[in-house]
Known about the structure:
- With 90 residues, this protein is of the alpha+beta class.
- The chain contains 3 helices and 4 strands, in the order H-E-E-H-E-H-E.
- The strands form 2 sheets. It has a two-stranded antiparallel sheet with strand order 1-2. A two-stranded parallel ribbon has the order 3-4.
- Strand 1 and strand 2 form a beta hairpin.
- Helix 2 crosses helix 3 (66-77).
- It is globular and about 35 Å long.
Amino acid sequence: MTLKSVQTLLDVLHFADSHTAIVVPELEIRITYDSLRQQVLEMANALASAGIRRGDAVCIALPNGLPAIVSFSGGLYRGHGSSVKPGIPL
């Protein structure tokens, strides 16, 4: 796979390199593609361990930020139908 063949968010995760993928300026955090992919795989495995299977609907209610990105991507990775309601005040 080359950068030009990337078409989806999940395609990007397969690059898994040390380039910066996400910046959270207010926390002074930079997440690399390697780290993002690892976090997404951990979330995907946690969802599977909880009994959530391919095709199941998953609702994500998190404020905007890294946890929401990881949760949404983890659901996509396992083939769940994920619904996101961004910016929910908790």
